Amino acid sequence: MKKTQILVLALAIIAIGVLFLLPRVIIDNDEGNSEISSNEANPVAETEALHNAPISASERETITSLVTKLDREENKEKFVTFADSIALLYNQIGKFDSAAFYYERAAEKIDNAERWEKAGNAYYEAFGFALNDQKLVFLAEKTRNYLNKVLEKDPKRLDLKTKVAMTYVSSSNPMQGITMLREILEEDPQNEQAIFNMGLLSMQSGQYKRAAERFEELVKLYPENIQGQFYLGVSYFESKQNNKAKKQFQIVKSTSTDPMVLSSVESYLERL
Question: How far are the Cα atoms of 61, 88, 178, 237 from residue 24, in angstroms, in the given order?
Fold first, then answer.
């Protein structure tokens, strides 16, 4: 799912919010069946509606100046330089959908795999922070559009296939994403992001014991994965494995210095 997306509690909370907007999918029950319950959402018609949240006057002035130069620029390389600069500014202020929009404009000017990947990754970043169904669906479609182009040229890019899989989970056919994640794990049983995402999906469907198994596997292979360590504790907590939960949250507490993470861990420990 890209770089560790939830290094602090704030990002963890955002990811949990996105997770519970997804369709509920039973992915690992004992009978081997898959139960799906989902609500279709319509994509957003206007791209501009995705990036109209307020920003400071100085930031707006800088971006407006760059956009003016961008719209007047006829040279492709200079156009892309302006687009990248605008996208970088939007990324710095947390407007990931706006950043993706300008990376897409650059990809439209210079149509190659490097630009497709940059636009697709940017839309996936925005997808990870979308907190309503319309944005989620729209950004998922944009992500797939660009990353699938890269995968057509290089099917071995399991990192990108994992991202595409997670966008399908938010679609009207979530099992397509689950199937892709399973395919990734068949090809690479130790794939960090595929294991992590299968754990998240088990949590989302209420299969906390199964989620704990996934996260146990993850932190055994990748003990530095902060998200996995945190979610392992949550999975233990939710599956009533209180002794394991307490021990796991103590591990997180001893390895993190972030005050928000520590506050969250303390709140769990107080409930045990």
Answer: 43, 35, 12, 20
Residue 35 three-state SS: strand
Other beta carbons within 10 angstroms of residue 237's beta carbon come to: 21
Can you spell out the DSSP letters for 173-231?
-HHHHHHHHHHHHHH-TT-HHHHHHHHHHHHHTT-HHHHHHHHHHHHHH-TT-HHHHHH
In a domain, 226, yes or no: yes
- Phi and psi at 34, nearest 5°, equal -125, 120
State whether 126 and 233 are in the same domain.
no
Position 170 confidence tier, pLDDT thresholds 50, 70, 90: confident
Rounded-to-integer distance, Cα 234 and Cα 4, Å: 17
Q: Is residue 254 part of a domain?
A: yes
The token duo for 208 is 């906390």
Please check whether residue 147 is in contact with residue 115, taking contact to mean a CB–CB distance below 8 angstroms. Answer: no
DSSP 24: E
The tens digit of pLDDT for each residue in 15-70 reads 444 454 455 555 665 434 444 344 333 333 334 444 455 678 899 999 999 999 99
If one counts the domains in the chain, the total is: 2
Going by C-alpha positions, the residue among 120, 126, 128 that lies closest to residue 103 is 120
User: Coil, strand, or helix at residue 37?
Assistant: strand
Query: Three-class SS string for 38-104?
Result: CCCCCCCCCHHHHCCCCCCHHHHHHHHHHHHHHHHCCCHHHHHHHHHHHHHHHHHCCCHHHHHHHHH
Is residue 42 within 8 A of residue 138, CB to CB? The reply is no
